[in-house]
Automatic annotation (TrEMBL), chain A:
Any one GO MF annotation of this record: transmembrane transporter activity
Segments forming domain TRAP C4-dicarboxylate transport system permease DctM subunit: 13-458
One Pfam family cited in the UniProt record for this chain: DctM
Ranges that cross the membrane: 6-39, 74-92, 112-142, 154-181, 193-215, 236-255, 267-286, 298-319, 331-350, 395-425, 437-462
Protein name in the entry: C4-dicarboxylate ABC transporter permease
GO (cellular component) term, any one: plasma membrane
Keyword terms of this UniProt record: Cell inner membrane, Cell membrane, Membrane, Transmembrane, Transmembrane helix, Transport
Topological type in the membrane: Multi-pass membrane protein
Signal peptide: none
InterPro entries named among the record's database cross-references: DctM, TRAP_DctM
UniProtKB/TrEMBL annotation, chain B:
Key words of the record: Cell inner membrane, Cell membrane, Membrane, Transmembrane, Transmembrane helix, Transport
InterPro entries linked: DctQ (IPR055348), TRAP_DctQ (IPR007387)
Any matching Pfam family: DctQ
GO molecular function: transmembrane transporter activity
Domain Tripartite ATP-independent periplasmic transporters DctQ component: 39-172
Subunit structure, as described in the record: The complex comprises the extracytoplasmic solute receptor protein and the two transmembrane proteins.
Family as reported in the entry's similarity comment: Belongs to the TRAP transporter small permease family.
Function summary: Part of the tripartite ATP-independent periplasmic (TRAP) transport system.
Localization of this protein: Cell inner membrane
Protein name: TRAP transporter small permease protein
Gene Ontology cellular component terms for the protein in this record: plasma membrane
Keyword Phosphoprotein: no
């Protein structure tokens, strides 16, 4: 049997494991290990005596992967980004943000919902995880919206959708994982997420304003704050601005000259600032221990997926599946843009049933080289490329598109994690209610993705400034 | 997608073993959390060293690479014990009683098989970097300042062995539940109703914020 | 018969001998013995020796300085200011070194047999920011420099950091380093030229040693005809490599500097001689001491290697 056929069969087996409810990290690791055994045993013509030899080599190759892949400086961003999120609760940053957003922008039609979107976008600038963002704002924003007569389902939908912004707006654990899988500059990708993230927030806001203007009985605007009250709301949320500032100058120095350090350092320094704030606000060892344990648990979960899936990816390397898939895609007789859109639609379907990180790790090793080949290769110049951008810029653009798809999947039924979390916080809301409330935002997301495809400049303008 | 889960306890030997392992696992997870914290401190030192004292922290990258396995591996058993490794529970979520225990036993044994092989493979990886006769027992060192790599490589088989113990306890738990057909199985992670689980998570996140 | 070959990065001057030998072997055996080259799919570059030792693949390239404890004997060729001046000389020296019993024994621990070197020219430094006018200007400069070149950098007051080639561009983007010591092909392949504003022409502090090895059991298990085809192609592959490096890579270098407006920095002969005096002997002494402690015949190896240069 050819390695490529083995690759296809094992990949099918992996899907079965996952659907049967095996934990994704281990299902991928097991599929990789079985695949490696198979490939090496096939090399010896399935000689029964060679089985133990094949098993040994496969175990040794797989056993290298956890340490080898995890001992990576770039990956250290993930735990620090997670830690920032947990520390931010203790620093009281979330509440401060929502209060400021309310006083400054809630006077527009659909005011409080618009304010919620901007507050989640602001919190996204310090939080690396979408679910956490939705969970917090469900507590803070929904009660206020209900108080002034918003539809319950819609209020929940706003929070579920707003939470997704955390993975586009840096810092973002998912963008880091993408950058590492495809071996592109982490800093550039984080930078690239900024405008599309803000852009998504604007489209959400536009949608809400549109709905407020056309639907009778939509929540009223909130006005009447004096300028004094408005300015008084700013200082408590200033630390967020400061953290954002730090992360930005560490990724790309807007004052000219060199960046001050790596994104890793920027993330860690941001965490340190939030940590100092939290201590100032009264966080002590018991709370810190809690935050550290929670960060550890989430980090371990992500890292286990990373090395598990990378065992599978190492097997794919031995089976040469990425090369074969990329050859197949580039030989297809459709327009490259159509193929790209079909790939994104496939992500939308897959994302209904899988979580974002597992989905990216599983698919990118095969899909990414194919997309790069469609554009004309890693080293192609913008002028000679299919999509009108250089190889590295195409990597950035595709990354943002894929992460936006992964975010979209957080609010689509049947498994939209953000919606589950929001329903969980509110006893009076079922998951179905939240899915119904969030539905208008599918339209907003579809528009956003369409615009990002049609006008790649939205994505690549900022990173291209960084050189 | 299931994250957290409940584990029932009683005073059987099985449950006592499970609780003991959970304690060990929690301690290891805390080490991992402290490693995250030290990563943050390390970066602060590195940045201030470079920008204010014009003297970069020697071996900054090497030290991060040493800390990463601590973060990534030490909490793996604790996370498994409490059902924290994600999975799709659309199918198992529909199962009940003995069918459920049989399915869970099957995947638990599959994970155990994988992890036993990975313990072997990662132990071999450690051994290739370890030499009793070499200075600092090192046969592989970091690139910049030459820190021996064997301690970091040793963390993988150690943490994975604890996970294997946890998996054996869980397999035992599912087996006895399969035999007795109880609806209150101990020492195994139970699927929570998804909403209850989200509530659990959210209460944790927000508990201190308001 | 098929062999898997583990390289990293992308195809570049540094990998042309492997590409060439694959082509030659294929031709000589009528396609019956194939070398499948993978760029990064089979292993991480720092773990290619582990993969060879496991038997995961049959051939691989690596750099001695990536892991000095794995291959201490080879690092003698990475000492600073050894006085090697051409690629041909670098090639002959490495080929002789690879036959030395202590080196053969060192690599045998990994079940590896040295096949051929990947000779590289003397490293020089490209950087951004203020152009150094004299060696004094290197004080405090964060520079990527491994092994002996790092020691030379320390001697002029710079702060050397080691990292593998694939990590360099990100470190440069992030400001962790301001300058990079590389051979010309790597300055081009890893994107240093896109950021650099200056390049030193005559620092020549040394180079690093990156052999291609094969799994010993796999080599011994080859049919004699295949084995001859492989070993008999080494010279031709290396001839091709050196010619390609000298006539393609080196010729592209000067025009590229001009096009990018990268300033050339040349130091006085006196300054270089002083630096060499300050660095070379202490570094060599330290190397002999450290490696004798690891059980190598370090002094003998050092004398053997440097004896061929004079
Ligand atoms: Na974010
Ligand atoms: Na979904």
């Amino acid at each position: 049997m050819e390695p490529i056929e083995i690759g296809l069969i094992v990949s099918g087996g992996l899907l079965v494991f996952v659907v049967l409810g095996m934990r994704v990290a281990f299902a991928a690791g097991l599929a990789g290990l079985v695949g490696l055994i198979w490939i090496f045993w096939a090399k010896k013509g399935y000689d029964p005596e060679a089985f133990m030899w094949a098993l040994g080599i496969a175990a040794k190759i797989a056993g290298q992967v956890p340490h080898s892949k995890v001992a990576n400086q770039a990956l250290s961003l993930i735990p620090t980004f997670i830690l920032i999120g947990y520390l931010a609760y203790y620093a009281g940053l979330t509440k401060a943000l929502f209060e400021a957003a309310k006083r400054w922008i809630a006077w527009v039609p659909g005011g409080l919902a618009v304010a919620t979107v901007f507050a989640t976008a602001g919190f996204a600038a310090v939080s690396g995880a979408s679910i956490a963002t939705s969970a917090v704002f469900a507590r803070i924003a929904i009660p206020e919206m209900l108080k002034i007569g918003y539809d319950k389902k819609f209020a929940a939908g706003v929070v579920a959708a707003g939470g997704t912004l955390a993975s586009l707006i840096p810092p973002s654990a998912i963008l880091v994982i993408y950058a590492i899988i495809v071996e592109q500059d982490v800093g550039k990708l984080l930078l690239a997420g900024f405008i599309p993230g803000a852009f998504s927030a604007l489209i959400y806001a536009g949608l809400i304003i549109g709905m407020a203007l056309t639907i009778k009985g939509f929540g009223p605007p909130v006005s009447g704050y004096t300028w004094k009250e408005r300015f008084a709301s700013l200082p408590p949320s200033l630390p967020i601005v400061f953290v954002v500032f730090i992360i930005v100058v560490f990724i790309y120095n807007p004052f000219g000259g060199d960046a001050w350090g790596t994104p890793t350092e920027g993330g860690a320094l941001g965490a340190f600032v939030v940590f100092c704030m939290a201590v100032f606000k009264g966080m002590r060892w018991a709370e810190l221990k809690d935050a550290l344990l929670e960060s550890a648990k989430l980090s371990v979960m992500i890292f286990t997926i990373i090395w598990g899936v990378l065992i599978y990816v190492r097997f794919l390397g031995f089976a040469d599946l990425p090369g074969a898939f990329s050859d197949w895609v580039t030989s297809l007789d459709y327009s490259p843009m159509l193929i790209l859109i079909m790939i994104l639609l496939a992500y939308a379907v897959l994302g209904m049933f899988m979580d974002a990180i597992g989905m990216l790790l599983l698919t990118l090793p095969v899909v990414y080289p194919a997309v790069m080949a469609l554009n004309g290769g890693e080293a192609v110049s913008a002028a000679e490329s299919t999509f009108g951008m250089s190889g590295p810029m195409c990597a950035v653009w595709f990354g943002i598109l894929v992460v936006k798809m992964a975010e979209f999947c957080l609010i689509t039924p049947p498994i939209g994690l953000n919606c589950f979390v929001v329903a969980g916080v509110r006893d009076d809301l079922s998951v179905q209610d939240v899915f119904r409330g969030v539905a208008p935002f599918f339209v907003a997301d579809a528009i956003t993705i369409g615009l990002l495809i049609a006008f790649p400049a939205i994505v690549i303008w900022l990173p291209s400034l960084a050189g | 997608m299931a994250g957290n889960a409940n584990v029932l306890t009683d005073d059987s030997l099985l449950s006592l073993l499970d609780q003991k392992l959970n304690e060990i696992g929690k301690f290891l997870a805390l080490i991992s959390g402290l490693a995250v914290f030290s990563l943050m401190i390390l970066a602060v030192l590195s940045v201030s060293g470079r920008n204010f004292f014009n003297h970069p922290l020697p071996g900054y990258i090497d030290w991060i690479e040493q800390a990463m396995p601590l973060i990534a591996f030490m909490g793996i058993s604790y996370t498994q014990r409490n059902g924290g490794h994600i999975r799709m529970d659309m199918v198992v979520g529909k199962l009940k009683g003995r069918t459920l225990y049989a399915a869970e036993l099957l995947t638990t044994l599959a994970i155990l098989t994988l992890m036993l092989l990975i313990v072997w493979g990662s132990w071999e990886h450690f051994q290739r970097s370890f030499d009793f006769n070499a200075p600092m027992w090192s046969r592989d060192s970091s690139m910049d300042i030459g820190i021996p790599l064997w301690p970091a490589k040793l963390l993988a088989p150690v943490a994975f062995s604890v996970l294997c113990l946890q998996l054996i306890v869980q397999a035992w738990g599912f087996t006895s539940a399969l035999i007795s057909g109880t609806d209150q199985p101990v020492a195994v992670p139970l699927i929570e109703d998804v909403a209850a689980q989200a509530n659990h998570e959210a209460s944790h996140l927000t508990g201190h914020d308001d | 018969t098929e062999w898997n070959v583990s390289l990293w990065g992308k195809r570049r001057a540094f990998t042309e001998h492997v590409e060439k030998i694959a082509e030659l072997v294929d031709k000589k055996t009528n396609g019956e013995f194939k070398l499948n080259i993978s760029y990064g799919g089979l292993s991480k570059n720092k773990e290619n020796l582990d993969g060879i030792s496991i038997g995961a693949f049959e051939m691989a390239q690596f750099c001695a300085g990536y892991h000095r404890d794995k291959n201490p004997s080879l690092t003698v060729a990475e000492l600073p200011f050894l006085g090697v001046s051409t690629l041909d000389q670098e090639r002959r020296l490495s080929e002789e070194l690879y036959k030395h019993p202590a080196v053969v024994k060192d690599l045998a621990r990994w079940n590896a047999t040295l096949l051929m070197p990947s000779p590289m020219p003397q490293y020089n430094i490209a950087g951004l920011g203020d152009t150094p006018k004299s060696l004094d200007d290197f004080k405090g400069l964060a520079v990527r420099a491994t092994g002996g070149i790092g020691q030379a950098m320390k001697a002029v007051g710079a702060v050397p950091t080691s990292m593998s080639a694939s990590e360099v561009r990100q470190a440069l983007d992030g400001g962790v380093i301001k300058a990079v010591a590389f051979a010309q092909h790597a300055h081009m392949a890893f994107g240093v030229v896109e950021k650099a504003t200056w390049w030193t022409t005559n620092l020549n502090p040394g180079t690093i040693n990156c052999p291609v090895v094969v799994n010993t059991d796999a080599l011994n298990g080859l049919k004699p005809a295949y084995r001859d085809a492989l070993l008999g192609s080494v010279d031709e592959a290396l001839d091709y490599y050196v010619d390609n490096y000298n006539n393609k890579t080196m010729k592209r270098w000067d025009p590229l500097l001009k096009e990018r407006g990268i300033e050339k920095v040349t130091f006085s002969d006196q300054a270089i001689a002083d630096l060499k005096k300050a660095v070379a002997t202490p570094a060599a002494d330290q190397w002999v001491k450290d490696n004798a402690a690891k059980g190598l015949p370090a002094q003998e190896l050092y004398d053997f290697f440097t004896g061929m240069i004079k």
